[in-house]
């Protein structure tokens, strides 16, 4: 008897992660994980991202008991300090002023949870972004046009945020947007899902 094909579920409400996953041209469902995304005291940024990516995938498994569930999370770090989502204009101004002329590391964690057999694969993919030396007027203009208040570090490289950036380095440019597709393809293949 042949095993039933498992459903693929993206445990994320992010429209950016959804758009990235659509690039693979495979069917998937979307589920919004309900978890507390606050970092734990003294938790390293990579550990925060990994813990939250896994928690997102596992929280969705309550509904999808026979699925491959993708969880992802991203933590931005500047000089050892975690930068969260600014959530408003004033916080975004503060973040971008701190980041100008400096390198920020975006730690993107990816989990693929097989709720059929409780197997989980996790990876952390860092991406390094050096920001341009922007003046206050440029920061204000950018924020008024882009409004990136729900993006770690106030920068959406897939949009107008690219003007903030001097250079980017890393193994997977999709990691910066929030879903490392190179690693995901490998994880899916391990679970028997062939993309091409």
Explained architecture:
Strands 1, 2, 3, 4, 5, 6 and 7 form a seven-stranded mixed β-sheet that branches. The chain has one domain: Maf protein (Alpha-Beta Complex), CATH 3.90.950. With 196 residues, it is α/β, with parallel strands linked by helices. α3 (89-99) crosses α4. It is elongated, with a radius of gyration of 17 Å. It has six helices and seven strands. 39% of the residues are buried. β1 (7-11), α1 and β2 form a beta-alpha-beta unit. The model has no long low-confidence stretch (mean pLDDT 92).
Blueprint (SSEs and pairs):
Elements: E1 7-11, H1 15-22, E2 29-31, H2 45-60, E3 67-78, E4 81-83, H3 89-99, E5 103-114, E6 119-131, H4 136-146, E7 165-170, H5 173-177, H6 181-190
Parallel strand pairs: 1-2, 1-3
Antiparallel strand pairs: 3-4, 3-5, 5-6, 6-7
Helix pairs in contact: 3-4
């Amino acid at each position: 008897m042949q095993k039933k094909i498992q459903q693929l579920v993206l445990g994320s409400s992010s429209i950016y992660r959804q758009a990235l996953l659509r690039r693979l041209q495979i069917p998937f469902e979307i589920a919004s994980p309900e978890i507390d995304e606050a970092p734990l005291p003294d938790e390293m940024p990579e550990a925060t991202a990994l813990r939250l990516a896994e928690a997102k995938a596992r929280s969705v498994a309550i509904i999808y008991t026979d699925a491959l569930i993708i969880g992802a999370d991203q933590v931005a770090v500047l000089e050892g300090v975690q930068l969260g989502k600014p959530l408003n204009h004033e916080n975004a101004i503060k973040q971008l002023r701190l980041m100008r002329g400096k390198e920020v590391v975006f730690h993107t964690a990816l989990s693929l949870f097989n709720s059929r057999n409780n197997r989980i694969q996790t990876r952390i993919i860092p991406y390094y972004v050096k920001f341009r030396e922007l003046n206050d007027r440029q920061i204000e203009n950018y924020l008024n046009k882009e409004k990136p208040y729900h993006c770690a570090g106030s920068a959406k490289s897939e949009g107008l945020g690219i003007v903030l950036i001097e250079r980017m380095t890393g193994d997977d440019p999709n990691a910066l947007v929030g879903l490392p597709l190179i690693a995901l393809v490998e994880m899916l293949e391990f679970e028997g899902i062939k993309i091409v």
